[in-house]
Specification:
Elements (H helix, E strand, L loop, with lengths): L6 H23 L6 H4 L3 H15 L4 H22 L6 H17 L2 H14 L5 H16 L4 H9 L7 H5 L1 H8 L11 H19 L1
Length: about 210
């Protein structure tokens, strides 16, 4: 599947996901705004797409990318557990998904063994095994359109059935942003990683 996004399109997609993520988590903390949880179901698929896209097109140092994800997943976990619950945060979910992609690309025995050993952990991550598999599903789709059924299958099991429509809306939203012709300045990648635990900390301090 030949899809190329400009730097501005990628930047816009990140900001859309971040804004919707904040709204989603406001809905988590404030029961009267629980309907925002529906809107937030598009967020993780967008993040999974962006990670898969960047890994495929923009990342030269694959191992460094994985280490960076692991670092920020660890940094985020204490505040995530404090604010959201006992599961592993979405950066761990994304990391496991990227490990699947890494094993596919490199076919290194030790990496394959690591993935097998980490399967039980996938079930205690945010979004579970479907969340983990969403990243490689986008990766394979970006390489070949024939993997569209795999993506559809994974999206179908990502959230509870009541959220299915909003989960599916992530795809046309990505397609819509891909038509954006404007210009947006690039923000440091560190900002987006750091924003995740920072916004959880702020919301927890304000609402708990």
């Amino acid at each position: 599947m030949e899809l190329r996004l400009s730097s501005s399109q990628q930047e816009l997609l990140k900001w859309v996901a971040i804004v919707l993520m904040v709204l989603d988590h406001v809905g988590f903390f404030l029961e009267q705004y629980a309907w925002l949880r529906f809107v937030g179901r598009v967020v993780y698929p967008i993040f999974a797409f962006l990670v898969a896209y960047n890994y495929l097109h923009n990342t030269r140092n694959k191992e460094g990318y994985l280490k960076r994800l692991f670092f920020w997943a660890l940094i985020s976990q204490p505040i995530y557990m404090l604010a959201m619950g006992a599961s592993l945060n979405i950066l761990f979910t994304i990391l496991l998904g990227m490990l699947v992609v890494y094993v596919f690309e490199n076919q290194k025995p030790y990496a394959l063994l690591l993935c097998v050993l980490l399967i039980p952990i996938a079930f205690v991550t945010s979004y579970g095994i479907a969340g983990v598999m969403l990243v490689p599903s986008f990766y394979f789709l970006l390489k070949n359109i024939k993997f569209a059924p795999l993506l559809a299958f994974t999206l179908a099991f990502l959230n509870a059935p009541k959220y299915l429509l909003f989960t599916a809306l992530s795809i046309p939203l990505i397609a819509l942003v891909a038509r954006f012709n404007g210009t947006i300045g690039r923000t440091s990648g560190v900002f987006f990683y750091a924003f995740y635990p920072a916004h959880l900390a702020v919301l927890w301090l304000v609402f708990v």
